[in-house]
Amino acid sequence: MRLLVLAVLLAVAVPVASAQSFTPLVEGALELGGDDLFAVYFTNGSSQEIQAGQGGTLAVGVEGRPVASLPVAVRGTVGFKFVGTAADNANIYFTRIPVELVARYEHASGVHAGVGATAHLFNRLHGDDFLDDKTFDAAFGPTVEVGWKWVALTYTSLSYTDEQGNTFDAAAPGLSFVYRIRR
Question: pLDDT by residue (tens digit) across 148-180?
Fold first, then answer.
């Protein structure tokens, strides 16, 4: 699987590098899903479960068209993904660094579809002495999107493996927003 993801990353990266012009962009995303990673129990009797794929992402990157006459663009981004708990007396959160390369076809109407690869790096659970801190191996997987203009429905499929070898499904559907900075 990692070789397949690496091959897709390279296949997408080469056209981006050869594109005649780049458009800088900012991307935001919200995702839900995956296995329950941990739960926090509150003094009022309620609880909050955090899922492996859950979180909000803020990313920056560039998009380029390998062939100006074709409606195909390639986007590369690096971001920060975060999910925290609602605890008042603890700062418990899970962070990741997502790196994505996505090839996207866009119809003249603004409808677009894309496919690519993602890597989640430096995956870390910060337990603030209420939970054990944990690190997870780098995770690699495919990602797809369907959208209109600056908004898209997304789906990313990957798994996290912790220090003890436990694997957590982090597959997550989401909603992303891309702002292209036109010059």
Answer: 999 999 999 999 999 999 999 999 999 999 999
How many CB atoms are closer than 10 A to CB 126? 15
- Which residue positions in the chain have pLDDT lower than 70? 1-20, 183
Backbone angles phi, psi at 167, to 5 degrees: -110, 135
Q: Are strands 22-31 and 172-180 parallel, antiparallel or unpaired?
A: antiparallel
Q: Give start and end residues of each alpha helix (H) in the chain.
A: 2-18
Which amino acid, 148?
Answer: W
Identity of residue 78: V
Token pair, residue 100, equals: 């994505």
| CA distance to 64, 105, 163, per residue, from 111 (Å) | 18, 9, 42
Sign of torsion over alpha carbons 26, 114, 96, 175? positive
Specify the CATH number of the domain 2-180: 2.40.160
Residue bearing tokens 């597959």: 171
C-alpha distances out from residue 13 to 10, 38, 167, Å? 5, 35, 29
Residue 161 burial by CB count (10 A; 0-12/13-18/19+): exposed, middle or buried?
Answer: middle
CB 98 within 8 A of CB 64: no
